[in-house]
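Sequence design from tokenized structure. All designs in this work follow the same two-part layout: the structure record, then the generated sequence. An example of the structure record is given first.
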């Protein structure tokens, strides 16, 4: 079920940094996030609505400074054309609450060839 909340409701639940990235399409600095170098087994969930988004088995070191995955959990994310910043990219959002997560690029490893480049602050890690 889709979660719809206004900015005031999200501000009560999220830190100012999480609100900026997740709800206002911001980004965190590379290598600054709590999960970019996490190697534990488990699931990466949306920080806003706790929906499972990525499995640790799909995480890889892209060298970018953000957690990167080659595949999202089925139906967990949506992809939207993003033409901000003078370029065309594909934004990744949580399918349940529309939180901005990051972007997906076609330069990842097999088997998908994709690189979901996700902000750590948008994720809560649940150890297996």
């Amino acid at each position: 079920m889709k979660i719809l909340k206004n900015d005031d409701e999200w501000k009560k639940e999220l830190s100012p940094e999480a609100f900026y990235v997740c709800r206002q399409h911001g980004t965190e600095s590379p290598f600054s996030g709590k999960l970019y170098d996490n190697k534990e087994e488990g699931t990466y969930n949306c920080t806003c609505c706790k929906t499972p988004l990525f499995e640790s088995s799909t995480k890889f070191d892209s060298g970018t400074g953000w957690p990167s995955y080659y595949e999202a959990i089925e139906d967990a994310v949506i992809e939207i054309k993003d033409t901000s910043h003078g370029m065309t990219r594909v934004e990744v959002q949580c399918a349940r609450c529309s939180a901005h997560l990051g972007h997906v690029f076609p330069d990842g490893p097999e088997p998908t060839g994709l690189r979901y480049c996700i902000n750590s602050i948008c994720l809560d890690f649940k150890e297996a």
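Residues 16-24 form the longest helix (9 residues). We note this feature because it recurs in several other targets discussed in the main text.
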